[in-house]
């Protein structure tokens, strides 16, 4: 059985391990390189996953093993506080096809609406990642633009599609 909850300091080591798996599994979808992700200290990771009034990170657990993650953040400035950005959606490949990504997105969306009164969600996705694009479209996200050459992995550039979802 999979449970989803916000992460805290006790989850930092597992979060780092899942992020490294994400970089290895999807290097064109995750911004930091393996070396950059490895260089982050546990203290930095604790700060990155700590829930605040502008950020939250969710984990999907099978018993006590972290198998999926996603984050959500927003700006505290009043003129843009109506929207939040989903980032870092990843599910261990061994656990895919079980609705975990959808459950993580639902948890992040509920947090954004219930805790922050957010009315719009944003995200970016590698334009070549057809499965991720299908996932986000199935959850009501729509493309509103493409950033050419948004990411460079080794000697190749990748475009990112910018997507949004209105909640109200």
Strands, total number = 7
The first-to-last residue Cα distance is 32 Å
Main β-sheet, spatial strand arrangement: 1-2-3-4-5-7-6
- Helix percent reads 25-40%
Question: Hey, roughly how much beta strand do the residues contain?
Answer: 35-45%
**How many domains, as an integer?**
1
CATH superfamily: Gcn5-related N-acetyltransferase (GNAT)
CATH architecture: 3-Layer(aba) Sandwich
Radius of gyration (CA) equals 15 Å
CATH topology: Aminopeptidase
Large-scale geometry: globular
Report mean pLDDT, rounded to a whole number. 96
Q: Residue ranges: pLDDT <50 for 5 or more in a row?
A: none
Assigned CATH class: Alpha Beta
Broad structural category: alpha+beta
Per DSSP, the total helix count is 5
Largest sheet: 7 strands, mixed
How is the quaternary structure best described? single chain
Series of H and E elements = EHHHEEEHEHEE
Secondary structure: elements and pairs:
Layout: E1 2-6, H1 12-25, H2 34-39, H3 42-49, E2 55-62, E3 65-73, E4 83-91, H4 100-116, E5 120-126, H5 130-138, E6 142-153, E7 156-166
Parallel strand pairs: 4-5
Antiparallel strand pairs: 1-2, 2-3, 3-4, 5-7, 6-7
Helix pairs in contact: 1-3
Characterization of the model:
Helix content is about 30%, strand content about 35%. The chain has about 170 residues and is an alpha+beta fold. The protein has one domain: Gcn5-related N-acetyltransferase (GNAT) (Aminopeptidase), CATH 3.40.630.30. Strands 1-2-3-4-5-7-6 form a seven-stranded mixed beta sheet, with helices on both faces. Strand 4, helix 4 and strand 5 form a beta-alpha-beta unit. Helix 1 crosses helix 3. The longest helix is centred in the middle third of the chain and has 17 residues. This is Protein N-acetyltransferase, RimJ/RimL family. GO terms for molecular function: N-acetyltransferase activity.
């Amino acid at each position: 059985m999979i449970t989803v909850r916000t992460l805290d300091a006790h989850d930092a080591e597992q979060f780092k391990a899942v992020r490294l798996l994400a970089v290895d599994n999807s290097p064109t979808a995750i911004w930091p390189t393996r070396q950059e992700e490895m260089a982050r200290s546990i203290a930095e990771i604790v700060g990155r996953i700590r829930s605040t009034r502008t950020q939250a990170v969710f984990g999907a657990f099978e018993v006590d093993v972290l198998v999926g993650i996603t984050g959500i953040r927003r700006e505290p400035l009043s003129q843009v506080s109506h929207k939040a950005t989903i980032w870092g959606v990843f599910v261990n490949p061994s656990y895919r096809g079980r609705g975990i990504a959808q459950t993580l997105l639902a948890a992040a969306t509920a947090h954004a609406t219930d805790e922050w009164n957010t009315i719009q969600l944003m995200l970016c996705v590698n334009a070549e990642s057809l499965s991720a694009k299908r996932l986000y479209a199935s959850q009501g996200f729509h493309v509103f633009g493409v950033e050419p050459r948004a990411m460079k992995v080794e000697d190749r550039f990748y475009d990112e599609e910018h997507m949004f979802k209105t909640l109200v």
